[in-house]
Design brief:
It is a single chain. The protein contains 9 helices and 6 strands, in the order ββαββββαααααααα. Helix 7 packs antiparallel against helix 8 and helix 8 packs across helix 9. It is globular, with a radius of gyration of 19 Å. The chain starts with a strand and ends in an 11-residue tail after the last helix.
Length: 221
């Protein structure tokens, strides 16, 4: 995991693929390069090079910035749901090269819910997002993973991206509201929780009802 400073002032650690995403979206100001034991200023990094690909600027990082991840081929796919495919008789490896967003999403679910491997799950969901940037479910689940990793800033970034893709997703509003609440951003939290309740997300209604003093309970309801 790589430490980053967000433009909003927050700080946290992210996987290398999410780091690429944050750089491209100009969400961070600095990241830490362990090999050189120094912080890299994204705006003036001398080892960075700009290029043009399909009309967009491409920012390339050193190979040393990237995590070394073994990608071994899995056995032949068996019929059934994606989650079951990785859960039943699975090997502890990643989907084969060329896997799509569904395969990486399923792998992320297994690593998060079964293996309790949050860094691995974050990277798997990041791969799912890279394969399909419009996959709002991958953003929500990566946000949950980063909450477990105590990177609330990244969690909020991911919930916000999911909401931008589907403004009527009550679950994303609910989780973002809880993340804001943990950061003490009461007005933002209340706004999201009320919106989630308006969208008939039951858990949000229960949290709002349980608050004798708004946003001062540490429980998630």
């Amino acid at each position: 995991m790589i430490q980053v400073f967000y433009h909003t002032g927050g700080r946290g650690s992210v996987d290398d693929i999410t780091l690429d995403e944050l750089i491209q979206k100009q969400k961070i100001s600095r990241f830490y390069r362990p090999v050189e034991e120094r912080w890299v200023n994204v705006g003036v990094d001398p080892v960075r090079s700009g290029g043009r690909a399909q009309g967009a600027e491409v920012l390339k990082r050193r190979d040393s910035d990237r995590e070394e991840v073994s990608e071994q081929k899995t056995g032949e796919d068996k019929p059934g749901g994606l989650f079951d495919r990785f859960l039943k008789g699975r090997k502890r490896d990643t989907p084969p090269k060329g896997s799509g967003t569904k395969d990486w999403f399923a792998r992320g679910l297994v690593m998060f819910r079964v293996d309790n491997d949050c860094p691995g799950a974050a990277r798997a969901f990041a791969r799912a997002i890279r394969a399909n940037p419009g996959n709002e479910r991958a953003y929500v689940n990566r946000g949950l993973v980063y909450e477990h990793l105590e990177n609330l800033q990244q969690a909020i970034e991911d919930y916000s991206m999911s909401i931008s893709l589907d403004p009527n997703d009550g679950k994303a509003h609910y989780f973002r509201g809880l993340a804001f609440r943990r950061l003490g951003m009461d007005e933002n939290a209340l706004r999201d929780l009320k919106r989630a309740a308006e969208l008939r997300y039951t858990a949000a209604e229960q949290v709002l009802e349980s608050m004798s003093h708004p946003l001062h309970s540490s429980s998630r309801g």
